[in-house]
Amino acid sequence: MCVMCVCNVCVVFVSLVPAKLMREWRAQFEAGLPLYEAVVVEPDAGPTAEHVLEEERINLLDEGDFTEYKVTNTNTCQGLV
């Protein structure tokens, strides 16, 4: 990594990350410890009720956006004809 890149990173992180937290992260990194806990994912786990609800929300928003696009596109095309 070039010296200029390291300086840029230092300038950005000095103002964003508290010194104590940076020291803790550095100590963990140098010790070879992960910065966060590993998440165990069960391969056979089905979708939860929360995931199903989120999918329904996303589908509803997608349908609404598509309907709005069709109406806008139809109105625009009618004005050109």
Spell out the blueprint of helices and strands.
Blueprint: H1 3-16, H2 19-31, H3 49-80
Short description:
The model has no long low-confidence stretch (mean pLDDT 76). This protein is 73% helix and 0% strand. The chain has two domains: 1-35, no CATH class; 47-81.
What structural keywords apply?
81 residues, mainly alpha, 2 domains, 3 helices, 0% strand
Account of the protein in words:
With 81 residues, the chain is mostly helical. The chain folds into two domains: 1-35, no CATH class; 47-81. 73% of the residues lie in helices and 0% in strands. The protein has three helices and no strands. The mean pLDDT is 76.
Structural class: mainly alpha
Question: How helix-rich are the residues, as a percent range?
Answer: over 70%
Task: Give the radius of gyration.
Answer: 25 Å
**Residue fraction in strands:** under 5%
Distance between the termini: 59 Å
Strand count:
0
